[in-house]
Amino acid sequence: MTGTILNAITVLIGGVLGTLLGNRFPQRMQETVFASLGLFTLVIGISSALVTRNPLIVLGSLLIGALIGEALRLDAALTRFGGWLQKRLVGSDDARSAARFVQAFVTASLVFCVGPLTIQGAIEDGLTGDYTKLAIKALLDGFAALAFSATMGPGVLASIIVILVFQGGISLLARLGSGLFTEPMITELTATGGVVLLAIGLQLLDIKQIRAANLLPALFVAPAGIALMDLLHITYYPTL
Q1: Count of domains in the chain?
Q2: What is the Cα–Cα distance from 217 to 221, expressed in whole angstroms?
């Protein structure tokens, strides 16, 4: 959990600084910074998605995950949770401010918790205590939190809760089940997460509004699919 705590601290620092400095940036500068974040998210998403060794697993995980997410309405649930946090932490009844807070919370939560360093770093932290990857992620997230909060407001700070619960939960799960995660599981989970990041990047660039939160179950379907293939003795790597 050391890496996750460090990550939460850097997001807190970056988020506070961004919130304090945000009003000093002109609108056009905020728009350019926001677009840069969207482009960077697309780059990370593409690079992560390309690590897959079997694209059919990623496709199947996304399709099944999307069905589960839509059935559970995860995007709506995350939005409601963001609204609840906004009322508790900010207390403003202004509809525009509330919507901005929720957008910042949902976007930051997904970006900070879906990337490849989240999965790999949290597992390594839980299994071996090596939080090097999470330390790198913490530094990156700190700067991202500064940029996000400068353009989207203090809702970014609420994403710390999701970081602690989701990322910390992965580390705890890895510690409890040291032999649970195999290399193929991590690989396909990372690739699937990369596609989810692409959805977030498209949202940030205002190209396509995708309910990215409804794709999150795919992150659990991917490793479960690998485990099922192992159980049925199905070859993981496709024949070339």
Answers
A1: 1
A2: 6
Beta strand ranges found along 21-156 (DSSP E)? none
- Whether 197 shows a pLDDT value over 90: the answer reads no
Residues 6+ apart with CB under 8 A from 38: 201, 202, 203, 204, 205
pLDDT tens per residue, range 168-183:
998 888 888 766 778 8
Q: How far apart are CA 23 and CA 15, in angstroms?
A: 13
Residue 36 tokens read as 């840069």
Q: What φ, ψ does residue 41 adopt, rounded to 5°? A: -65, -40
Residue 236 located in a structural domain: no
Q: What is the CA radius of gyration of the chain?
A: 18
Pick the residue with more confidence: 49 or 34?
A: 49
Smallest CA-to-CA distance from 214 within 66, 5, 44 is with: 66
The answer for residues whose C-beta is within 8 angstroms of residue 216's C-beta and 6 or more apart is 65, 69, 74, 114, 196
Pairwise CA distance, residues 210 & 215, whole Å: 9
Q: Could you list the residue range(s) of the whole structural domain that residue 195 is in?
A: 2-231
Q: Is residue 62 part of a domain?
A: yes
Which is more confidently placed, 94 or 10? 10
User: What is the DSSP secondary structure assignment for residue 48, as one 8-state letter?
Assistant: H
122's CB contacts (< 8 A; 6+ apart) are: 3, 4, 134, 167, 168, 170, 171, 174
